[in-house]
Amino acid sequence: MTTLETVPDDIKYLFLASLEDVRSLKALCQVSALFAAVFSSRPSTIKAKVYFADALKYKNEALWVTSIKSLSAPVDKTIMVTAIDMYIRTSGTAQAPYTIDGNTYSHISKDLEETLYRNHEAVAELYEDFTKLVFETQLLPDGVVRTHVSPTESEERRIMKALYRTWMVLLICEKIQGPMIIAECTGKLFHTWGFWENVAVWGVLQGLYRGVFKTVVDKLGEMATAGVLSRFNSRSVPESDLTSLCLVYDFPEKTHRWIRKGEMEPGQAASRVLEIFPLVHDRDPGAWLRDSMSNEYQVVVKAQENLNANGSKQLGDDYARDRPRVFKRDRYMLGTYFRGVQVDLGAYVWDDWRLEQLLASQIEASMQKKVRGKGTKGG
What radius of gyration do the chain's Cα atoms show? Predict the structure, then answer.
């Protein structure tokens, strides 16, 4: 009897290359050593086809990123606003046109297909790093190492789209000069995306920000020695500004170097920042990103106020979870209550069952802390 395992390798190759998402490719290669061997024999060819097909799930965002990435900074405000308006008009349409260097096309060429594959590969790699980062820092509040179930398909789609949209925001920060113009451009996107969609971008951006920030702080000494900190005035917060710089100019292809433990060799962090500085010109390093993040917070809060004024009607979001009350924990963090327990609002990217798991861990850790506290008092 012929099965997928017994068919010739050429058929296995065709089957792998016809898969339409990276998730299926990885799952099949994990459960079948034979398919894994075929993939290993022609990884580039198979990945090019599968990653391109997977990128089409996020077609509007992927095409917008590709078109803006190709432009040299600084980009004229009119060009950026036109690109954003086209993205808004074509969102949700099956045949979204795209613009490269001011020219509009309706079909994806082979060269563009290659670019979309490469970009998607970088986003998919960052997705893996992001999920590991969040599991490590947020899903283990009691310090106990547990085996966590991999993200579900819905969680993956939510995070991947948020990563692409985060890239859109960061490209605006990179390509446009002037905090006010940047706030205007990013504001158009924030107002277009639904309440929960904004929260997802916020959650992804903040998760990555915290990861990069930790490495920047660790490398602050070597940066001071290399003269990096002399670029900042007394009113600056160098570690925050440097984190913003690294997010803007290294996203997504090089972000992993900033968030993976032990990835940066001695001197590499300072060297990379010195390479970034000439790209910033005379702008205050990191200030534009802080403005954009503050602007996004205001958009989320205003969306919540609009919701409160108009009842519980959904505003066209792709996820119909009940909207919680939003409160501000600090400058950049959003928080809410889920099942009566305070959580980071960025947890929107996770399914309800995983939030339940997170909250159970938090409650358990809180109870253990109380028990230890009583034991100390009793002693």
Answer: 22
H or E element that contains 69: helix 59-69
In degrees and rounded to multiples of 5, residue 98 shows phi and psi of -135, 160
For helices 110-138 and 153-175, the axis angle rounded to 10 degrees is: 110
Q: Looking at residue 331, what is its pLDDT?
A: 45
Residue 348 is classified by DSSP as G
Between the alpha carbon of residue 190 and those of residues 112, 149, 196, the distances in Å are 27, 31, 11
* Residue 220: closest CA among 243, 197, 186: 243
Task: Give dist(CA 15, CA 35) in Å, integer.
Answer: 9
CA 56/CA 19 separation, integer angstroms: 13
- Give the full edge-to-edge strand order of the sheet including 327-328: 327-328, 334-338, 341-344
Task: Give dist(CA 296, CA 302) in Å, integer.
Answer: 10
According to DSSP, the residues that pair with 99 across neighbouring strands are: 104
DSSP per residue, 58-106: GHHHHHHHHHHHTSPSSPPHHHHHHHHHHHHHHTT-SS--EEETTEEES
**Which of 86, 63, 332 shows the shortest CA–CA distance to 171?**
63
Among 357, 320, 319, 316, which residue's Cα sits nearest to residue 338? Answer: 357
Cα separation, 169 vs 299, in Å, equals 14
Q: What is the pLDDT of residues 209-235, one digit of tens each?
A: 888 999 999 999 999 999 988 887 767
Paired tokens of 262: 């032990």
Could you tell me the pTM of the whole model?
0.82
Q: Where are the domains of the chain?
A: 9-41
Instruction: Identify whether the C-beta of residue 335 lies closer than 8 Å to the C-beta of residue 329.
Output: yes
- At 49, is the secondary structure helix, strand, or coil? helix
